[in-house]
Amino acid sequence: MPLTGRWTLTRYLIEKRRRHPQASGELNALILDVSLACKALARIVSRGPLGAGLSFAGGAVNVQGEVQKPLDVLSNEVFLRMNEWNGHLGGMASEEMEEPAQIPASYPRGKYLLVFDPLDGSSNIDVNVAVGSIFSILRAPAEVLHSGRNVVAEDFLQPGAAQVAAGYAIYGPAAQFVLSVGDGVAVFTLDPELGEFVLTQANVQVPPDTQEFAINSSNARFWEPPVKRYVEECLAGKPGPRGKDFNMRWIASMVAEAHRILMRGGVFLYPRDTKDPDKLGRLRLLYEANPVGFLMEQAGGRASTGRQPVLGVTPSSLHQRIGLVFGSRNEVERIERYHLEPPAPHAPAPLFATRSLFRY
Questions:
Q1: How does residue 63 score in pLDDT terms, banded at 50, 70 and 90?
Q2: Which pairing describes strands 196-201 and 247-249: parallel, antiparallel, or unpaired?
Q3: Which of 274, 248, 265 minimizes the C-alpha distance to 300?
Q4: Does residue 83 share a domain with residue 171?
Q5: Could you tell me the CATH number of the domain that includes residue 118?
Q6: Largest CA distance in the chain
Q7: CB-based contacts of 139-148 (< 8 A; 24+ apart in sequence)
Q8: Residues 134 and 231 in one domain
């Protein structure tokens, strides 16, 4: 029976477990608690500046060196409070916290770890651009469950391929919950009358080819040669080496970029560059690259650092940053090939060049 019709997220998860008896009921319950946090945030975000006591002005600086807004702090608290009590978690880690969050002693410990970015794209919320929440579920080390010890950062340093489930919520014109439990990708839309996430698209597939790419061109002067080559070929359009015209997109909201690509294809690049040689990229491996990469791979797309599959990278720190390219498989593989090929003997023309009015 195809997974279509007005199925709630609960029914979808029950059906998945029936088809895969080895699946854990605890995992289903944890996902439902995560979705409950997303429902709460969908309501809060939808009120915008009407939300009581909320300001879009900046506040403290978080571990990422970014100015937190009150909504960032509130979103983090919602995720913590909605998930700490259920007995399914050994601990949590958030983009907004320097160290892992412990499960209070009054609550039982569980066999999973929850990693999340509670409000991705919050810098755009004051202009009413779609934002979202990203999450990843990992298995906790056995001793966390059996000995009751507190989690440490090293417990979370697992490659993306080890994820049990991952997904995101997007708070746009409609609130949607996108999920993979390692068996394809499904999209659920929040029905405000039911108060439930309802299945609206099953077995999402990212088209292998595309004519859309997303990149922040203001960083062009810092790009590595393979990225410059790729973008210049796209911009050359039909007369160029690609033989077709491309459209360029940039929303500056990771969730919104990923959602567009899941729905209609495309490729997203936030690559490693030379702007800060000490950083291997800008996006967070655990909170952004791994969960989005998991979804893309489950939908037939590809996610890469530009040099290797992102899901194969073993994290070295809780807040590690990394370069990321994801989306339509054939485009991502092309970018990987460009990184492997030796540099061209003559550098191509710069992306944005000053030209004389006169031809000589």
A1: low
A2: unpaired
A3: 265
A4: yes
A5: 3.30.540.10
A6: 79
A7: 139/111, 139/112, 139/113, 139/164, 140/89, 140/90, 140/91, 140/110, 140/111, 140/112, 140/113, 141/90, 142/111, 144/90, 144/91, 144/109, 145/90, 145/109, 145/110, 145/111, 148/109
A8: no
Q: What CA–CA distance (Å, rounded) separates 257 from 263?
A: 10
Which DSSP helix (H) or strand (E) runs through 334?
A: helix 329-340
User: In angstroms, rounded to a whole number, what is the distance separating the alpha carbons of residues 169 and 119?
Assistant: 9
Model pTM? Answer: 0.90
What Å distances lie between residue 127 and 42, 169, 330, CA to CA?
A: 16, 19, 34
Residue 1 inside a domain? The answer is no
Residues 195, 274 within the same domain: no
What whole-number distance in Å separates Cα of residue 27 and Cα of residue 17? Answer: 10
Residue 217 and residue 140 share a domain: no
Contact at 8 Å (CB) between 114 and 166? no
What is the share, in percent, of the chain residues with pLDDT greater than 90? Answer: 76
**pLDDT score at 360:** 35
Q: Checking DSSP bridges between strand 165-171 and strand 175-180, what pairing results, if any?
A: antiparallel
Asked, for residue 359, whether it belongs to a domain, the answer is: no
- Is 137 within the bounds of a domain? yes
> What is the tens place of the pLDDT at every residue in 245-254?
999 999 989 9
Closest CA to 306 of 282, 276, 286, 275: 282
Residue with token string 């014109």:
173
Residue span of the structural domain in which 42 resides:
9-201
In this predicted model, what pLDDT tens digit does every residue of 186-240 receive, in sequence order?
Answer: 999 999 999 999 999 999 999 999 999 999 999 999 999 999 999 999 999 999 9
What confidence score (pLDDT) does residue 350 get? 54
CB atoms within 10 A of CB 151: 22
**Least confidently predicted of 98-102, 249-253, 303-307, 342-346:** 342-346
Let me know whether 174 and 42 are in one domain.
Answer: yes
CATH number where 259 lies = 3.40.190.80
